[in-house]
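Forwarding these from the shared drive since the link keeps breaking.
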Amino acid sequence: MRIPKDLIEAFRNEKVFLLTTHIGPDGDAIGSCLALAEALKSLGKAVFVYDRDPVPECYRFMPGCRTFRSSLGRIMTKHPLVVLLDCNSPDRAALTGYAFRKTAVIDHHETESDFGDIRWVERSAAATGLMVFHLVRTLGVQLTKSMATNLYTAIAVDTGTFRYSNTDPDVLKAGAELVEAGARPGAISEHLYEDWKKKRFELLVRALGTLDISDGIAFIHVTRDMHEKTGTTESDTENFANFPRIIDSVKISVLIREVDRGRWKVSMRSKGRVNVAKIAAANGGGGHRNAAGFRITADLATIKKVIRKAGGAVLPDL
């Protein structure tokens, strides 16, 4: 993995950093920020970690997660190097309207913008956490147990715990090194998949009850009313989009979650070469080939129609 020289120089020479990631952060975003922050602090840097949204409950086992700030305060007056991880535009990181002295992007999404004075975008990388793993090693920083835990979690989340097609030799070698450095695969997997609150499981049951399958595309949805009845929040739907993909006939799995009356967030997952990033991009969103999403204002029937029509164009890629 080739890291841009200007990025390495910036991390070595800059003194103050603001690390940030996309709103509604997932395990890859959180783990990448936390591991890089710890690495930079070990080099004597001043580091701030920001996300507008709180860390979802399912990721609060990750070391250092409480260091995330939900507001910038006076950080910008320190003129930091602003580093976007696991996203590539300031609006995705809730940074619209701010002026930046210098910016860098570390990302692996298929859809991208031209933002960033320094850009390192590896669309073939399984996870941003994998990129950070190589960056930390290049900076000569010794992996700690907490860094290893965060990076292992980041990589595990974006590879389906080493089950998805993006699991290549580099991913497995990195995983082995992270385990040697102190990451505990069993404990991490238990936190990710076997530590749900009962109310979250009840929400999943309700969501699966809406299952609608046709032409290889499976839909489930979550409404605000379902959240209210189960006492759950948006973060409790993490990973829901993956469940219908278990069905052998399903090539695209879609979770449609109500954000506000008439406004929905669409999360798509796919198998093999089916590129849902194309569907997302056509609707103003983005993501990866097998995991992407967008937001839309419409009714459920219209949203399904839009996805089915766009899905007809990508399903022949099989």
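-- next protein --
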Amino acid sequence: MLIILACLAGVLLGLTFNVFVLFPVTIAGILAYALLSPGQGFGPATAAILIPAISLQAGYMIGLTGRDTFAHLRARLNVAQSKRV
């Protein structure tokens, strides 16, 4: 479930932000995990941190490649009156 949520968060970040947002979001996720689950060994903690971080970056790449398609879809669904003269 966490992998899917991280991937969806990456897609949303890829649709709206540039690549510099990945580092702070990944660090925030690592810190949140470290604070919420103390007492784990190095192996399980590393796997629990790396797998969602990689999923976040993969989702970002999916969102980044889908930017143009999303923009066309959003423009097509916009039913507001045109402001052109």
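Residues 2-77 form one domain. The chain is about 75% helix and 0% strand.

- D.
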